[in-house]
Design a protein that fits this description.
The complex is a heterotrimer of chains A (162), B (384) and C (168). Chain A is an alpha/beta fold. In chain A, 22% of the residues lie in helices and 27% in strands. Chain B contains 17 helices and 8 strands. In chain B, helix 3 packs antiparallel against helix 4, helix 4 (86-115) runs antiparallel to helix 5 (119-139) and helix 5 runs antiparallel to helix 6 (161-183). Classes of the chains: A alpha/beta (162), B mainly alpha (384), C alpha/beta (168).
Amino acid sequence: MAEVNLAVKKLQEKFPTSVSEVKTFRDEVNVTVQKKDIFEICKFLYSDPDLQYQMLTDLCGVDFFPESPRFEVVYLLYSMTKQQRLRLKVKVGNSESVSSVESIWKAADWLEREVYDLFGISFDNHPDLRRILLWDGYEGHPLRKDFPVEGPDFDKPFVPEV
Amino acid sequence: MTINMGPQHPATHGVLRVVLELDGEVIVKATPHIGHLHRGVEKLAETKTYHQVIPLTDRLDYTNAMGNNLGYVLAVEKLLGVEIPKRAQYLRVMMAELQRIAAHLIWLGTHALDIGAMTLLFYNFREREDVLRIFEEVAGGRLTPTYMRIGGVSKDLPEGVTEKIKGFVQAFPDHIKEYETLLTKNVIWLKRTKGVGIISKEDAINWGMTGPSLRGSGVKYDVRKAFPYSSYDEFNFDIPIGSTGDVYDRYIVRLREMEWSNAIVKQALERLPKGPIIANDPRITLPPKEDVTRDIASLIRQFKIVSEGFQPPKGEVYVSVEASKGELGYYLVSDGSNKPLRMRIRPPSFLNLSALPKMIEGSLIADVISAIGSIDIVLGEIDR
Amino acid sequence: MGIETYLEKTPFMPALDYIVNWGRKYSIWPVTFGLACCALEMIVTSSGTWDIARFGSEVFRPSPRQSDLMIVAGTLTKKMAPMVKRIYEQMPEPKWVIAYGACACSGGVFKTYSVVQGVDQILPVDFYVPGCPPRPESLLTAIVKLQKKIEKETLANRKNVRSTIELK
């Protein structure tokens, strides 16, 4: 816990305007930051010798329809040397895009493609942003709250194009 | 020349498609295409109550069903803030480690089959049948047991199972020696696995790899030791690591892991405490069946839990367990209603597979098969 | 069609039927088409405890051109469906299909946007084996019943066989 508070303290020193909210729930620290600074913050967390968050454990999106801003992109970082986890959150509106952290952690390559595929959030400076789980030409982004579970064309018969 | 290693292929461990660009026999570029088994589990989980999601988690990584259940159930328990009785924790550890042995047996059998050693498949599946018989007696299902419940486990050990587990645990180290005599010093195996599919320490961490694929490169990271859950800190075990990060090192790491899992099951069986197997919290656990038919309060409780479920507090948690493939994480966001707002599954094989192009660029086409087998992917988990 | 059209009314036909069906039913070679969890139960059926080789399925051929049975084991998604159809069309006559598992029979637990609700929406199925996953003995029962079905087939009316009918 002490090291995570160190990370939060350092973030608040270096990026005072960015950090909008720090919450703790069940011993986990969630830091909400501004969307425009996310690349700088990640670079700082990766390279700072006291923090050293070398591993991007997870990157995912959450849809809070009908609140606004609607989406949230969540980054879960892990520092192998200090054995600490940190969660960063970024609020994204409907047709906005976030800058990609693929140049810092290569793990973000496929994770960001998945967020684009299922939510429709685009990432700037991503080398290859296209659909990964659904096929090319699929319309719609399934994990949005206004997309039905059975899909929009459930009652039509399915004909595969060979 | 571009070759398509298609979704229907005996050696791709499921429906994985890899497009290889070759220059003679050397691979210039490799692109995996996934998504042929995307079933929409995360979207489906948003329409079910917290109890009803447990069978869905079984079918993610179908070789490691108990581990998947365990991760989800731990996440919900953390969200609720519920204490688990000791006997339930030990039973969970025992079942998860037996499942790890079964998953590694499948890996070894199919990996050896791809490279050419067909005998091991039959030996491994014979051992796995013993484990599945234990699961069937304890939980009722072979491949999809759905044994864990929120608050504990579903059933206690029936009569006669402890002897079966004891017999298995006693006989298993000899079987591992059998596999080692077949493979570890075999010239063909060494030639096909040493120096193949190498990934360095820094690259492996940067690509987000976890599990035996990461430990083969020399990084000592295991969720059971870093963030202990379900009383793993009371057990005595070590974490094997490799040195070079090639296919042979990952093979040795998984063999040693099987031995250590065997030791953990032995310890759990010897020190199994007595007590209840599920937490006594009226919001989440079903009452005993005899009470339901006798008094009205238990009937109402049973009805409410089955039809509506419970309402956890608003918030989010992330819990990860050490599945047989790596760090399996569950990120649950709750908005106070009886259905989860978002259930995100952090699949270990997804990130391990994304590092595949890095491992095989510059090697021969036969090395692709060894490399895919050694990172041990299961498409059910990658595509969810 | 061939020699059957000449021999149709002769007394040679039943004997020819018997011999040909005897050969076909005791050497059914499946093509490896495991998609998801049920594939593991299929592999287990072919290993030591529930040996499928004693029923004639000696090997699981990886190539569809050398096999005559397709066991669709696992969930069929809309992304994978064109490939299933293509592999089915590559198999030579006579061919049979077993839908193994709840997902192949009717979509299973997954009533979502990307799952085909049953393999019979795109292929003609001979036997449905329900279960999630079904025990290996169920697959062996399906193979035995398939052998009984092949016994009753005759070479004469091949043009009415279901795989040549256009599926709407």
